[in-house]
């Protein structure tokens, strides 16, 4: 270890120069390669993707909301008075957490799903 440290100290300017050259070469390589690599993930055949597509088709202005929650009922329709009131209360509560309390939409959605035992 001592010999390595002595070598590095003795040739410190050469070592710094080599690091700078390596940095410049890596910058040139990344500019040549460009951004042909992508970290965009898509999963076209999932339940959530299908639900999002239905949401975009049925409610195009609402599909760009910061939180998207899909409701399902086992008894009656969502347009029934009782179900409609429950949906309205839930949406109002979620909106308040994002708009008034300034919580992150992703955190609000995650907390909601966890509270319902869905995740």
Based on the model shown, name its key terms.
single chain; 119 residues; mainly alpha; 2 domains
Number of domains: 2
Shape, principal axes of CA atoms: elongated
Please state the structural category: mainly alpha
Residue fraction in strands? under 5%
Helix content: 55-70%
User: What is the overall number of helices?
Assistant: 5
Quick structural gist:
With 119 residues, this protein is mainly alpha-helical. It is built from five helices and no strands.
Task: Itemize the secondary structure elements and their pairings.
Blueprint: H1 2-10, H2 12-33, H3 47-58, H4 81-99, H5 105-115
Explain what the structure shows:
The structure is a single chain. By secondary structure, the protein is mostly helical. It folds into 2 domains: 2-33; 64-115, no CATH class. 61% of the residues lie in helices and 0% in strands. The chain contains 5 helices and no strands. It is elongated, with a radius of gyration of 27 Å. The mean pLDDT is 80.
């Amino acid at each position: 270890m001592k010999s390595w440290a002595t070598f590095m100290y003795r040739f410190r300017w050469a070592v710094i120069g080599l690091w700078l050259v390596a940095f410049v070469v890596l910058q040139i390589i990344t500019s040549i390669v460009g951004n042909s690599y992508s970290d965009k993930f898509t999963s076209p055949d999932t339940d959530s993707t299908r639900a999002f597509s239905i949401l975009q088709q049925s409610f195009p202005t609402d599909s760009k909301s910061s939180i998207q929650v899909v409701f399902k009922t086992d008894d009656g329709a969502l347009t029934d008075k009782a179900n409609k009131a429950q949906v309205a209360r839930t949406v109002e509560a979620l909106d308040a957490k994002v708009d008034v309390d300034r919580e992150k939409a992703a955190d609000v959605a995650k907390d909601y799903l966890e509270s319902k035992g869905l995740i």
